[in-house]
Amino acid sequence: MASDTTPPLDESICRVSDSMVASGVLASRDYRASLPSTNSAALEWLSDQRGDSSANATLASQTPRLVIAETQTAGRGRRGRSWLTQDDGLAFSLVLANCHPLLSIAVGVAIAEAIEHVAGPAHCGLKWPNDVWMSGTKVAGTLIERVDLPLAANGYPQTMAVIGIGLNVGSSPRLDEAPATSVCEATRKWVSRSEVLTELVPAVIECANLCDSNPQELLQSFRKRCVLTGEGVRCHVDGEIVQGRCEGIDDSGELQVWTDTGMQLCRSGEVSRVRRV
Questions:
Q1: 218 and 267 both lie in a single domain
Q2: Using CA atoms, how far apart are residues 256 and 240, in angstroms rounded to an integer?
């Protein structure tokens, strides 16, 4: 008989997530030993609300919602990439109402601030649009997916965001094509997953709210951590490859690249560093 390799639930994660529900930080949580992808599970939950006459009430009473797993068997990153989560890392998704254009900026700032608070003194850099760096390498990544639900109650769509976060806490995967680090490796301090989760979930929710209430605070926080500012970069703008000097982000959260033909704005996609000549 094959042995059961499903990992047990972490009691400290249970306590932290239950406490956040009890205190009102979260409205609901779904904690599993194993999931193919926390984002996919969150999207499936949202899909179940389509056409439900009580969906408005359900979404209001159940969000913010945390979906978290001990292991992901098919974690997803941006542009179809996979995300490998160590057994001492965090892989979770938050379901929030609304999907603001600055949400990616907000989530990056939240991750950086949470790590710096729990593992300080430490400094995190932010690589536009959605990577968090420590010691010059990636420590966390995000995948934000927008869902427009056609709710049956009033006929108007409800915009939701599923925010997937993968964070290396204790150790990092050894990948030839993409070097990585972890919070503990970068700071040489022991930090538990539950400590990081306790700081990170409220930080994401708070920073998401700042998208409307105080976007300049978010933008300034991102700008002071932007690792691309002043660097030579290459990106795609309107289907064409653009190369130039990164001038940081504008007030819309778009990456500004100074080229031979003037300023270009990169709105989405991959950005890579290049050697300036």
A1: no
A2: 15
Higher-confidence position of 87 and 167: 167
Cross-sheet strand order for the sheet of 65-72: 28-35, 65-72, 90-97, 157-167, 137-150, 131-134, 125-127
The pLDDT value recorded for residue 163 is 98
For residue 255, the one-letter residue type is L
pLDDT tens by residue, 74-122: 756 555 555 566 689 999 999 999 899 999 999 999 999 999 999 989 9
Range of the domain at 267: 232-273
Residues 122 and 236 grouped into a single domain: no
* H helical segments located in 5-131: 11-23, 38-47, 55-62, 103-119
Answer yes or no: are the C-beta atoms of 147 and 163 closer than 8 Å.
no
Nearest to 258 by CA among 226, 232, 227, 222: 232
pTM, 2 dp: 0.91
Q: Which residue has the tokens 């795609």?
A: 236
| pLDDT the model gives residue 87 | 81
194 CA to centre of own chain: 17
